[in-house]
Amino acid sequence: VLSGAAPPTPVNAVPQTSATAAEKRPD
Questions:
Q1: pLDDT at residue number 3
Q2: What pLDDT digit, counting tens, does each position of 1-27 carry?
Q3: Where is this region: Disordered (predicted)?
Q4: CA triple 9-1-18, angle to 5 deg
């Protein structure tokens, strides 16, 4: 939800990648 609320900025793309990596990991 936070990602959607935030604008599609390059800075937002960085945390988005982190979230994707966390989702892929079983942790």
A1: 58
A2: 565 666 666 655 555 566 666 666 665
A3: 1-27
A4: 60
Three-state DSSP at 19 gives helix
Q: Please report, to the nearest 10 degrees, the dihedral formed by the alpha carbons of residues 9, 12, 14, 19 taken in order.
A: -140
Q: Which residue has the tokens 């966390």?
A: 22
Dump the DSSP string for the chain. Answer: -HHHHS---HHHHHHHHHHHHHHHS--
pLDDT of residue 22: 63
Contact 12, 6 (CB under 8 A): yes
